[in-house]
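Reopening this one. Same input as before:
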Amino acid sequence: MSKVSMSKVKSILDEYELGDFFLSSSKRTIMGKGVFSVVKETRKTKNQIYSLPVRVEEAFEQAKRAGHPHPIVVGAVPFDYSEAAKMIIPEEVKVSSTLVKDSGQPENISLQPCEIQYIPAPAEYMRGVNQGLDKISSGQLDKIVVSRALNFKTKEQIDVKQILKRLEHHNKQGYTFAVDISDVNTIRNKETVLTNGKRILIGASPELLVSKNDSTLFANPLAGSRPRSDDPKEDQRRALELLESEKDLYEHAVVVDMVKESLAPFCESMDVPEIPSLIKTEAMWHLSTEIYGTLKQAETSSLELGIALHPTPAVCGHPTELAREAIYEIEPFNRGFFAGMVGWCDENGNGEWIVTIRCAEVEENDIRLFAGAGVVAGSIPEEELIETGAKFKTMLDAMGIEKQ
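Same output, byte for byte:
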């Protein structure tokens, strides 16, 4: 990776151009420019995700033979194992520390939506939550994440760079990202449409799936949420309520247990706190657990670890396969890259992968937002609807659109 001089560049984001890869975290900011090579896609199969690490290794070897000194792969992996990932080796990668991450006060944005569509409509979404609750009460599932989408058309073309700046400014402890998914088939209402223009996956996720540095891994599952309040006393009450909620603590424990179980085969030791802590974004409180592990084999890649975890119960449910099938049955749209993972991996396996939530797909003046809520025994459909509305707020605020 090339390093960016602190004296010359205030923020890598200032250099962003539509189509660049961008990922900003509390540790570093990475931007990939140009396309040196594309990770080869494979024939569509039910579980093509499992061949992705091998295809990435092949891409690394080919890039080095072609003269790339230090290849790094960047991109996005979809929710559905049978759909194609969008992975490239950029021509140039720029990296900066958090000391030069902040690009200052962003410009105000006020997009004017001229068409708005919920998929599904709120009443239908709550019926979907009840379908999930029926599967839980019958013993088929312990948890399911039921999601919805929000489509906008705006009068003007959407300025992705300015939205990214606003997301980063208000998301300093999280992960702000943009990935070009232009040549991937866009899924709308379970119909496949091939897009022509630039289509960008953009978002500000609070959740790290996994990172790997040499022989150390770190995972930070989130599950259990409350919307923030503008009133400080009410906001604190909601935070304390979340910490004491049996429903949310159970939902969180399901996710942590799965993460621990999935990572254990790779680790010679793990440190998993018994009690979750709280983290906050501008829109939400979340229960959080920080998990550290020492790998048995230092060459295990961050991508392999991410695939072993994907999708966690935080975005899918439990048991995973049954929850995924129920999602396909209940949700009237394909998730695409929502609830997938975004990130990077270098030739030594080091890297970080982010859970693709609080996100949207943008193309010219068309944007689709996504939000989901974890449903367990005791969940109330109206509350899950409110939670998804609060999660839309991250992207709506970035676009200067009043909450719908």
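So the earlier flakiness isn't reproducible anymore. For the record, The longest strand covers residues 143-154.
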